[in-house]
Amino acid sequence: MTRAPRIHVVGAGLSGLSAAVTLAGRGLKVILSEAAPQAGGRCRSYHDARLGMVIDNGNHLVLSGNVAVQRYLRAIGAEDRLAGPPHAEFPFLDLRDGTRWTLRPNDGVVPWWVLSAARRVPGTALRDYAALARLARRHPGKRIDEVLPCQGPLWERLLRPVLVSVLNTAPEEGSAELAGAVMRESLARGGAASRPLVATPSLDAAFIEPALAYLRGAGAEIRMGRRLRGLEIDGDRVAALDFADGAEPLGAQDRAILALPPWVVAPMLPGLAVPDSFRAIVNAHFRLAPPPGTPPITGVVGGVADWVFAFADRVSVTISAADHLLERDPDALLATLWEEVAVALNLPPEPSPGRIVKEKRATFAATPEQDMRRPPGRTAFANLALAGDWTATGLPATIEGALRSGETAAALALSGLLVAQNPL
Predict the structure, then answer these.
(1) Cα dihedral angle (297, 166, 72, 316), rounded to 10 degrees?
(2) How far is CA 115 from the centre of its chain?
């Protein structure tokens, strides 16, 4: 009797969970292995002893137009775990002069909002917004500073703060192609596709635990604390996965998906080009219930912080492309960020207890050069696929890109099974 095929998904970050959920939903036998004691990868939550509460390692914003996010949450029964305003609204504060405004794109595709000074960025004119249309076009291989002038009020007060967060790279050197891909899927489709949404009450509660519960219910095996050391290759196939606790042979119809960081995958697949330059993200979390009516997200211009997130029990700050802050004293950085948070949210100057969280290799550097190093999900081996936000998703390293990469890897595994079961 022929054994049913098994799909090994190695890595339980969002890309691995996406692949596993997709495959389990098709009735496949999934074995999910993760080196860490918990799932989630860079999208995780944990109890912080200093603050005495559960916090996320970082603040991950998604948009209402993120279709893979919608598919994933629907599959795991967590559609209600994202919160945000009913319409696209982005409050901003310029710390340099105290100017406040709220960007309000209209819901429809025709961007009539740029005709209204009340909805635009202060100091901008209608003609400035041609830059949005220019950026939304295809620009393969070009930097943003080759496409836009990178100066003026629209750049300083909207495009730069948005793009540094989208790319986690200084936007002047960032990929115009990747930035344009995000624009085409969000603002170019109108405010209805651009609503900011955050996980509630935590990343774990929205994206991780429901997925693990779904997988267990579907009969998947979940093995934590299981590190992959290498691959055993036999011709055009991977013959076995070499885990620290022993080798796992792959049968004729078994498949494997590596949903691991690029610096882990590259030594296992010599000759594979992967991104090799990365950028940091720094987050700060303060134990403080924000005042009623505080916007869920506020953009900050002219300071250290990029965005301030307001949750029910805490206020969090995100700083992208933050390599320059990695050696900064955490307490001094907390003090600086609290000053900005207090101004942004109209809070007393006395600081609340805080915690700095640094993710040194948060994402690959979203430059044209690094984008060209991103491999596809398909590999040279018939029974092996790759997943991860660093693969060639067409998007920067985002939750949406990670989930899409998992779907792609799952489709490749399924395609291979169909070929194996129904040879031409």
Answers:
(1) -30
(2) 32
Cis peptide before 296 (omega within 30 of 0): no
Cα distance between residue 104 and residue 123, in whole Å: 16
Residue type, 140: P
DSSP run (H or E) holding 103: strand 99-103
**What's the pTM?**
0.96
- C-alpha pair distances (Å), 127 with each of 132, 161, 187: 10, 20, 17
Q: What is the pLDDT of residue 417?
A: 72
127 class by beta-carbon count within 10 Å (0-12 exposed, 13-18 middle, 19+ buried): exposed
Considering only the C-alpha atoms of the chain, give the largest distance between any 2 of them, rounded to a whole number of Å: 75
Residue 369 carries which side chain, given as an amino acid letter? E
Which residues are within 8 A (CB) of 276 and not within 5 positions of it... i.e. 6 or more apart? 262, 263, 266, 370, 373
Burial of 87 (0-12, 13-18, 19+ CB in 10 A): middle
- In tens, the pLDDT along 307-359 reads 999 999 999 999 999 999 999 999 999 999 999 999 999 999 999 999 999 99
Place of tokens 């993200």: 281
Give every CB contact of residue 423 below 8 A, 6+ residues apart in sequence. none
- Pairing status of strand 314-319 against strand 228-234: unpaired
Q: How many residues does the chain have?
A: 424
d(CA 30, CA 16): 11
How far apart are alpha carbons 384 and 231 in whole angstroms?
Answer: 10
Mind listing the pLDDT tens digit for each residue in 128-160? 999 999 999 999 999 999 999 999 999 999 999
